[in-house]
Design a protein that fits this description.
The structure holds three protein chains of three kinds. Helix content of chain A is 74%, strand content 3%. By secondary structure, chain A is mostly helical. By secondary structure, chain B is an alpha/beta fold. Helix content of chain B is 41%, strand content 25%. In chain B, the strands form two sheets. A six-stranded mixed β-sheet of chain B has the order 6-7-8-3-9-10, sandwiched between helices. Chain B has a four-stranded antiparallel β-sheet with strand order 2-1-4-5, with helices on one face. In chain B, α3 runs parallel beside α6 and α4 crosses α5. The longest helix of chain B has 21 residues. Chain B is globular. By secondary structure, chain C is an all-alpha fold. In chain C, 66% of the residues lie in helices and 2% in strands. In chain C, α1 packs antiparallel against α10, α8 packs across α10 and α11 packs across α12. Chain C starts with a helix and ends in a 5-residue tail after the last strand. Chains in contact: A-C, B-C. Chains B and C meet through α2, α3, α4 and α5 of B and α7, α8, α9 and β2 of C.
Amino acid sequence: MSLFVASLGFGLVTASILAVAAVGFTLQFGVTNILNLAFGDIMTAAAFMGYIATTNGASIWLALAVGGAFGALFSVLLNRLLYTPFVRRGTRLFGMIIVTIAVSLIIQNGIQAIWGPSFFSLKFSPGHSYHVLGSMVFTTAQFGIMGIAVVAMLGVYGLLRYTKLGKAMRATASDPALARSCGIATDRVIDVAWVLSGALCGIAGIALAMNVTSFTSTTGGTFLIAIVAAAVLGGVGQAYGAMLGALTIGITSEVAAGLIAPAWKQVVAFAVLVAVLLVRPQGILSEVAEDKEVVA
Amino acid sequence: MTDLLAVRDIRKSFGGVHAVDGVSLSVPQGSTTGLIGPNGAGKSTALGVIAGALRADGGTVEFDGDDISGLPPMNRARRGLIRTFQTSSPFSRLTVLENLLVAAQNNPGETLLGAVLLGKRSWRRHERELVDRARELMAQFEMTDKEDEWAGNLSGGQKRLLEIMRGLMARPKLLLLDEPMAGVNPTLARGIEGHLERLRHDGLTMLMIEHELGVVERLCDRVIVMAQGKVISEGTMESLRTEQEVLDAYLVG
Amino acid sequence: MSTAWQFYFSTLAIYLAVDIMAVWGLNLQFGVAGISSFAFIMFQAIGAYVASVLTLGPAQPTSFQQYIGGANLPFPLPLLAAGLAGGLLALVVGLISLRRLRTDYQAMVMLVISLTATYVVDNETHLFNGPAGLSLVPKPLFDSLGLSLISYQWFYVGLSAVICVLIYLVVRRFTGSPLGRAMRAARDNEHAAAALGKNVLALRMTAFVAGGVIAGISGAVFVDFIGAWSPGSWLYPETFVYFTAILVGGTGNNVGVAVGALLVPIGFLEATRYLPNIGYPGFVDALEWVAVGVLALIFLWFWPRGVIPERKRRFPRAGEERRRFGVLALRGRS
């Protein structure tokens, strides 16, 4: 029982990281209709930026800010300099996947070329350990991660629901041509979507690096499995669905890992993905648009 | 005259909107029936249900004596119920000729057995016959010079013709046409009308959605009028012109 | 020619045969049927695995490698079993993911499937011997032929070439037939195809499984030559290399993709072998991958249709018939 509760604790932390990442991934997809499979690798890159920061004396909070800023900048440049030109050139859905995977390979191997195949860790102090409900153990840092996740989720919720920008994003997501003719500056909205999702990506990357003993050039890429599973579970493009999906997958994968075997973490995420695809491919909360074209 | 198609009380809603709300209609063998009505009347939805592309919430569809209500489009097509699409759907990276050839049914070369295990000899003769039939069709529709063109490169009007020709290659018992003249220039529309007239003369059973009432009057033996998801009247175009209900429906839209 | 050069060229020739077969298999799935088969490498991997296991003999508990199954089957049998394995895996993956998913979504799902498979293989040591993989797989017919090492190489080149030609004849039967045409139609517009009576799911599964079988066979030819199977050589970037080969060569036509196989996995990757080994071990490899990514982007930008684009299939008219054996012949091309 205590093992179960302890795993539940790990699950909450993993779910937090996953939630930030999955919401970033799905938000960007919802607005632009591009499945950015380089997302995990951008997380890795952000983690390495954080590594540079912390080994040069920066606090972990600064590292988080650096990671977020890096993610945002990198993502918006990636879109402007690469994705958008390809889309404007007429590249359709599958072609864009090739582009994003190419980018993923370039980033991942670029990182490996620069830093080598070794493992790295962020330099920070995790703080005290606190026991909750007997068997759950959280460090200060982990509380921090969960806190960040909550703040980020509330922020995204507030943005989408109450601000003009949020409404513009939702409009662009459902019908870009119509949104444009209603006077919405879709180009600006798209930039914002990439900045936002990039920031979330970067922050999630740092958080991930904080939570694992060490990370390497492939860490983010592997995490992509869980991100995709969470996004698909919730309905790709649905921010709230991604939060739900992240919670589900984060917790069940850690519990499975704790109760059965550590290797089961990834398998659970994968099994959820397969189950969703077989039973309800559009996810819990939405429809995946069939053949809606990419927006740039 | 027996009914080739008998639709009884079909219903289809989309998120609370009753697009088709208890529609019954029938199409006698050999006739050309028109389906008209203002925008949003549910005509395309009804056609979708008949073709199997949409699953009805209720009601039945009977074709050639069999209840086909639960069958997917693929099975309906195999029984001879062929539909064309409002937005032309050519196979863009196949040539015009290939588009026609692929439309034919029961090609022995399309099975794994015929194509891979037995090889060319088993389907060569059939293919030859199909090519001849396709070329005849292209001659009738005056598209012979486009035979080797990528279907994706055709003009809008040519794609429309291809859509109809493809439907014919499938040897339909009933051809469902979804606005065959929509958005087409008047000269081409006249051309298409001429082709349809010929098909009607040859005895093909057709059900067509069409907005241009002049065309409907010239081509269709009977006309069914829909508005707001229901059938409000049927008869010949002449009789309908005087019916108050019909006039109201068109004015209200 | 010196023995060293002979070894080099013969090895290259065998790699080429393997890659050409693989690319034909992938082309059947992607170029002809339009499936975003990003799990492709798995089919090649499982074919190679099955071929290894069926030639290694039953797993000995005392041996340093553990695996499932195991037999000591004579030459063509492991190859055929490999094809079967590839086909079966494709069947399973296809049943999960060949639903009506849009192409990029489908690619993503398949990618995740292959990522997870890699993960499982790396971690489930008792099934696949973990990251170390399998080694000491005996070469087919080596003992019975008793040739010198270099002669055996050339023999194997001939063997691979023969298998390659056989695969080509089968692939040709797919692509040049009404079946292939129906697959391409389903690729171009599945709703229209269904509305004309085509069973789109069956067409796709057929292409997918056939591609899986071919991939499995190519994997077997590869592993029987190399003698080792490690999970690290079957990662998703390998699928990406094949896709790049198809992209560069030209999707949808067999000659084009074969040219792509020559240019990308062989030409490009082999050419970079001759770069000096600078930096730490693996540095040049990492750069190679960066270069593959860049290459794919360049080709997708400038020549999206590839070096040899899909060609039109024409049918002879009345005056142009070719008469062969007194029977009217149809001249279609693939």
